[in-house]
Design goal:
This protein is mainly beta and 163 residues long. It contains 1 helix and 10 strands, in the order αββββββββββ. It has one domain: Jelly Rolls. It comes from Salegentibacter echinorum.
Length: 163
């Protein structure tokens, strides 16, 4: 094969790969090492959001077989540039009743794309911050799980709302 053909093929594959995710505006992951401590938060700071457009927001979670629960409780804070803070307590199903993980992926790690907010407009100029914290606790326990095992990555994604 000659070089121009190889280069064109590589460019075509790269273009196809990049164009498959036209809705993505922001997508970042943070690794969770040695369990997710109940006092640890993961902070995401998206930039350059169009104040005239609306967006759909997602929390992405990667877990492995060490995750022992069928659900996941999270506390989120969206901090606006002018100081307002919106706090939500969220529950997500992570496994079916038979124990099968609901996320996608091959092997031990599954990825779940979890709805956070729909049709959001970022109308205040400046930087927004999204903080995510785990809020898991065992049944009938007052205190939260100190170190949540089995979560490998936490991500935050913003997509264009195409509706």
């Amino acid at each position: 094969m000659d070089r121009p053909f190889i280069y064109l093929t590589l460019i075509a594959f790269f273009s196809l790969f990049v164009s498959c995710d036209k809705k993505r505006v922001y997508d970042e992951y943070k690794a969770v090492s040695d369990g997710w401590n109940k006092d640890s938060s993961y902070v995401f700071k998206p930039e350059k959001l169009d104040s005239l457009k609306s967006y759909n927001l997602f929390i992405n979670v990667r877990n492995n077989k060490d995750y022992k629960y069928s659900n996941l409780f999270l506390i989120t804070e969206m901090q606006f540039p002018q100081g307002k803070v919106v706090t939500d307590t969220l529950e997500y199903k992570m496994a079916a009743p038979n124990g099968t993980w609901l996320g996608t992926g091959f092997g031990d790690v599954k990825e779940s794309k979890l709805w956070y907010k729909e049709k959001v407009k970022f109308t205040e100029p400046g930087r927004y911050r999204i903080k995510i914290k785990q809020a898991m606790r065992k049944n009938d326990a007052v205190n939260g799980i100190k170190n949540l095992e089995g979560i490998t990555h936490i991500g935050f994604r913003i997509e264009k709302n195409l509706q």
